[in-house]
# Entry
Amino acid sequence: MGYSELAARDKNVQPPLKDYLTRVNRALKRLSYLVTQITTMLEAVVSTVPAPVGDDKAPLRALIYDSYYDKYRGAIPSVRVVDGVLRKGTKITFGASESV
# Structure
């Protein structure tokens, strides 16, 4: 007889629930440990990696190092901003070309 066939008042229903709750408790403890480790790692990265250098008041200057084509959105470039600020909707020209 499977657990689904047992009556709710039966004593045999309790152990599977207890086993499940024990496994959930162990998983939550592991997750808590992982979150602590990830937080420590991210704090180390933030304290070690220097802030970007550049003038956000200067005209936009960026290095386009990769791109891919999306059939709904067009060419999607990956850029490294050297100076200036990129905002949503900013038009980007490639090199000396005036085409967008």
Summary: The beta strands are 61-70, 74-83.
